[in-house]
Amino acid sequence: MTSRLLAAVAAATVLADASCAHTLRGANPEVGVSLPEDHAAHGDAQSEWWHFHGHVTDAQGRRYDWFLAFIKQHTDLDSVLWLPVRWFVDPFQVALYTLTDRSAGKFHVAEKHAYPDTWTADASGERMALRHGSWSAQRSDDGTMTLAARSRTTSLELALRPLKAPALLGKDGYLHVPPRSSHYYYSIPRMVADGTITVDGDVRAVSGLGWFKHEWGFLYADDVAGWVWFGVQLASGEELEIGLIFDEQSNLVDGSFAVVEERDGKVTPIRVRELEVKESGDTWRSPRTGTVYPIGWLLEIPGRGSLALEAAVAGQEMVVFPVNLWAGGLTVEGVFDGQPVTGECFAEVVGLDEPFGRNLLRSGRPTKWEMVKPKPVKKPPKKPPVKK
C-alpha cells in the first residue's frame, strides 16, 4: 500500500537537509515488475515491505488468522525534530507478527526493530531471503515460501505454495498516487498454507490459505493520511483486492484501486469510484489508545455482487510508534456472480487519529529525485482539412 503505515512504523518521514544527495528512486512507469527477480530486496527503494497473511484451521476445527511482515525503510531523507535519521540508522528495519485465535477470542502481537542494532536484520538483493532476529521468510526455487516467527506465547512455522500466478496491480505492477508517490506492487492472492502454530506451548498442525504481497519505491508524502485495504478470498475461487487511500480531508485520492482476481488468475479492474464500501456500524474502542475502529463493512461490487465483512475478533489493534492501526481477519458472506458465497478477509485500517505526538513528525516534500514521471505522449499533428 501507500503512505503512513511504514512511515509511521519506521519512525515517520520528514524531509531532511534538502542539500543531502541521495540515490532513492520512485518507480519507473516504463519498467514493470519482473519475477522471480523482484521477490528480492531493492537497494534504491525509499521503502519496501513484504507482507504475508492467511487463515488456517487445526485438527480440532479451531480457526486462526496470522500476519507476518518485513519492512525496510531507507532514511536518507528522514529527520526527527530536525535531526537526520541517517546519523543513527540507515536502513531502518521492522518486522511485525500477529496471531488471532478465533476460538479463544485472543489476539497476539509482537514486533522487532533493528534500531540501532541493524546487524540483526537482513534482506537479500539476490532472492527472497528475509531475516529479523529469529524471524524469517525465504523462497525456494520451486516457488514455496517458508515462514517462521515466535513471540513469548505463540509461534508459527508455515510453508506457502502458490495456487495462482502473481497479480500485477496498475500498469505491469506500476502504481502512482499523485502527485508524489510512485511504487511497484504485486500480490500472490491465493496460496496453500501448511505447517504448525504454537499457542501456550501447545503445537498444533494447521492448514488453510495464505496471501503474499510486495511493494517498493517512494511511498511516503504528506498527501496521504491513511488507507483501508481489503484482501478477500472467496470460497468460489476469486479474490477481491481493494486499496482505498485518503488525504487529510478524508477524500479518496487517485491511486486507489480495486480488482477481482478471477479463478483463472486474470485480473479484472473495478472502477474504484463505482465501488461502494460502507461501514456496517459495528465498532470497537481500543482500551489502550481510545481509538474507535470500524470492524464491519458492506461491499457493493458493480456488476458482480455484494459482500458483508465481519471481524472474527474485535480487538486486533497494533500499536507501533507513532501510529496505531487495526489489522486482522474477518469472515465474508454474500452473493457473487449470482451465487451465494462465503470466504475470508484480511483488512488494514490506518490513519484514524493522531496519537503519541505524531504532529511532531511530518512527511517532507520529495525532491525531483524521488519521482520518475511518465514521458509525455506526443500527439500526431492534425491534418489540414481536405478541400472539396
Characterization of the model:
- The protein is mostly beta strands and 388 residues long.
- The chain has one domain: AttH-like domain (AttH-like fold).
- The protein is 2% helix and 50% strand.
- The chain contains one helix and 27 strands.
- The strands form four sheets. Strands 1, 2, 5, 6, 7, 8, 9, 10, 11, 12, 13, 14 and 15 form a 13-stranded antiparallel β-sheet that branches.
- The protein is globular and about 55 Å long.
Compile the SSE list and pairings:
Layout: H1 4-9, E1 47-58, E2 63-73, E3 79-80, E4 83-84, E5 92-101, E6 106-114, E7 121-123, E8 129-132, E9 135-139, E10 145-150, E11 154-162, E12 167-168, E13 174-177, E14 181-199, E15 202-218, E16 226-234, E17 239-246, E18 257-261, E19 267-269, E20 276-279, E21 283-285, E22 292-294, E23 296-301, E24 305-311, E25 317-320, E26 323-336, E27 339-350
Antiparallel strand pairs: 1-2, 1-15, 2-5, 3-4, 5-6, 7-8, 8-9, 9-10, 10-11, 11-14, 12-14, 13-14, 14-15, 16-17, 16-27, 17-18, 18-19, 20-23, 21-22, 23-24, 24-26, 25-26, 26-27
Residue fraction in strands = over 45%
Mind summarizing the main beta sheet? 13 strands, antiparallel
Averaged pLDDT, please? Answer: 83
Number of helices: 1
User: How many DSSP E strands?
Assistant: 27
CATH architecture annotation = Beta Barrel
User: What is the CATH first-level class name?
Assistant: Mainly Beta
Compose a concise summary of this entry:
The chain has one helix at 4-9, and strands at 47-58, 63-73, 79-80, 83-84, 92-101, 106-114, 121-123, 129-132, 135-139, 145-150, 154-162, 167-168, 174-177, 181-199, 202-218, 226-234, 239-246, 257-261, 267-269, 276-279, 283-285, 292-294, 296-301, 305-311, 317-320, 323-336, 339-350.
